[in-house]
Write a structure and sequence with these properties.
Length: 495
Amino acid sequence: MLNSRLGYLALCLLTAVSAQAQVFTGYHTSQYAGVHAIPFNPALGAGSRYKWDVNIVGADVKAGNTYYSFVKSSLFSSQEKLVRNVDYIPDTNATRRQYGWGSGEIMLPSVLFSIDEKQSVAFTWRVRGSANAGGVETNIANFFALNYPNPRFTNRNFAAKFAAGNGHAWNEFGFSYSRVIKDEGDHRWKAGITLKYLGGQAAAYTVVRDASFTFNTTELADINSAKVYYAYNEEMDSYTDNDSWASYYKPFQNPGIGADIGVVYEWRPDNDGFGSMHEGGPDWNPDADTWKARFGVSVVDIGGIKYKKAMASANLDMTANNVIVRSLNKQRGESMRRYATRLATMFTPMENEETYYMNLPTSLNLFGDYNLNGRFFLSASATLALNSGEKDDNKTSALTQLTVTPRYELRNLGVYLPVSVNRYGQADAGFALRAGPLVIGSASILSTLGRRMINHADVFVALRVVPIRFSKWSWDKGSDGTYRKRRRNLGCPTI
């Protein structure tokens, strides 16, 4: 039963194109996000309301596609096999290309430490993975998904200019520094950078270009043209189905370098009175949240990892006549290495390098945040994929997405209602809760509850140490606190 479920999920990913969007969606721009905000924009660590913020463990998982829709109840049933047009329905009549995505990450012990009210440092430890494939026309998806090899498609020509499948899993140690770089009157600027030590765990890609084939019979086909490029790292040859994840997790293998960089601007209009001296209690950093509006921009996941190709990796010219259709399938009990080697003997090899460089899912992140009254806030954020095109074979890419989140914030409680839409027009409403040390939510849970059939879903959860606060009356110890600045502006005597 489990294997059948995983098989269908894998089939969904064969129509994938993007992965790794915003993590902790809705909560990620909160002023209480602490260390969880660092991956979105490292500048958010500067001037934090926390002296310490510690993540014990957290996870964020999301997956989806545009081709298959599943009846929700079927995903949790005890039946051995899902039935097409009963348990799931393919979008066979669509005129667009078909896409999907899948990503996941585990945030292991991580910490944010405020050196003072201006600057902070952070360490983040994340194990991440993303998978991409697809970009094919619907008729190609139908050819392979509807009882392949299906006699209804005989004596027909098919063409695909581009199709790809990519997957990448890596370990990431991040070292961040952020600070207030300019503070004049109502305007404050922050900047931050994260340098990452990457450890590549697994990386694979398959790219098909300029394919054209004729399905002569259910047994034979003519491949008129096709260039295929596939590779995976040599460590994967030692993996077996009986291995546990921990048995091949090696955080320092296949080293690489990555980086995030970000800037945040805060608008802090003055008001009549001392404002936030006691906001949230006298033992909090009161100057952290006295902005009326703030805006940020960051570029994250710059860099990548170099891998050595496994021996079975190849670049092939697959042009051939009278190809036995079923010979293209991976056979039962056949290892991936043996399958890839067998394909290489069937077609003409092309020049192939021994290594490849797997790029991270680089993205541009934007956000704006408006403080309505100190408890109610409204934020908007966007993630724009910077490497989702067809030129680079060796990559995974971010999911372009826009999110608007009204939220309610107290010291130990936060409620978030993200409303989002992605590049494929899929709109969602979600819910997230921050309650003491627990953060849990989903950017699509409210939409999912109201739908009979779904084609995407996500969930995140994190457990943190309830943040350690600044020492008592620290509002009067900093050199640039709001209370001190306003007292100075009014000519109050120094205490």
